[in-house]
Amino acid sequence: MEYNLALEVPFNLQYTLESGQVFRWERSGDWWVGDVTHGAVKVMQEGEWLRCVASSERVGSSFVRNYFRLDDDLDAVLSTLMKDERMTVAAQRFYGMRLVRQDQWECLASFLLATNANIPRIKKMVSALCSRFGEPFEFEGAVHHSFPSPEALASRSVNEFEECGLGYRAAFIKRVAAAVRDLKIDLLEIASLPYKEAHELLLSELRGEKVLLGVGPKVADCFLLYSCGKDEAFPIDVWIGKAVAGWYPRLFPPRLRRKLLGEGGSKMSGGDYETASEAMRSRFGKYAGYAQQYIYAAARAQPG
DNA sequence: TAGCAGGAAAATC
DNA sequence: GATTTTCCTGCT
After folding, report:
1. Taking chain A, what is the end-to-end CA distance rounded to the nearest angstrom?
2. Number of domain units in chain A
3. Residues A183 and A270 reside in one and the same domain
4. How far is the CA of A265 from the C1' of C4 (A)?
5. Do A250 and A218 lie in a common domain?
6. Would you tell me how many other CB atoms lie within 10 Å of the CB of residue A212?
7. In the 8-state DSSP scheme, what is residue A28?
8. Last residue of a domain, one of A199, A227, A255
């Protein structure tokens, strides 16, 4: 199934797919091939148009429009963020980059795997999980796989996940899959809550035990931002921490600033994370998550 | 609450 | 080829 989608809004496919939000897109010449919720889709940007080839009608233009959040008024968002020179430069340099709206379970599971790993490794782990436990389907002569459901993963052994190269993450993924399957945490309900309540609930405990073992504040924020549309979420990873401490030294107490910069060996505590994230939220407001995405892109393009 | 373990691949030297 | 770093969280 082929279709062309008239953009009529600022959008940059490459910036968006290379912004570290997604792990199941591969470049193939001018095309990008992505495995998404209900199939696979091949996309190429030609100026104001997106050329698309989809594995089924479920990955049609309304899906793509929703996935790339083309209804967001990007100019309006960016105009609220361009409060300083560096942010303005980043917004212009990566103009057209958008937050995506990906599948909730895939997003949570993917970022659960992202601890102590770099992007190529995360992709490798996600890909291993999909090819072993996902449902196979054919697209343009190649075998693709769906992202395995919570049920499918919860029924597997920790050992099988270790064989996928997950290491210590193997136990986390099994437990979190079971918790989601059993609705210990209802992802749809999370999405319906205001940011702060949703963030808190994701980190909550039941009888003194984390419901989502392995999900800390950073993973929770990635999940909320990339799959729930909670645009206030401001995930802080190593790159972002260093960037914001350098860009906005005044926003943080000196101790916290040093931790963000990774100086002196002392690590951030959970409280430090919330303080730093909240500081960015109070600077950039309800689109802080978009600011984070542009800072991330700028920081990775120009380390230091 | 601070410090450390975890785990393997990529990036860097 | 060895060492350092890597989109962090849990445990003590």
Report:
1. 45
2. 3
3. no
4. 14
5. no
6. 23
7. E
8. A227
Taking residues A199-228, report their average pLDDT. Answer: 94
Residue A168 and residue A61 share a domain: no
A95: left (phi over 0), alpha (psi -120 to 50) or beta: beta
Q: d(Cα A15, Cα A27) in Å, to the nearest integer?
A: 12
Instruction: Name the strand (E) or helix (H) holding A190.
Output: helix A187-192
Q: Is residue A81 part of a domain?
A: no
Q: pTM for the complete prediction?
A: 0.96
> A94 lies in a domain?
no
pLDDT band with cut points at 50, 70 and 90 for residue A270:
confident
Question: Which single residue has its CA nearest the C1' atom of nucleotide B5?
Answer: A168
- The type of residue at A277 is S
Residue A23 lies inside a defined structural domain of this protein: yes
Rounded Cα distance between A54 and A64, Å, is 10
Domain that holds residue A32: 2-71
| A156, A181: one domain | yes
- Mean pLDDT value of segment A198-220: 93
A210 shares its domain with A130: yes
How distant is C1' of C9 from CA of A169, in Å? 10
Q: Which two tokens stand for residue A53?
A: 């080839």
Express each pLDDT in A215-242 by its tens digit: 999 999 999 999 999 999 999 998 899 9
Residue with CA nearest to B7's C1' atom: A167
Tokens coding A272: 């430090």
Boundary of a domain, candidates A22, A46, A71: A71
Distance A165 CA to B8 C1' (A): 8
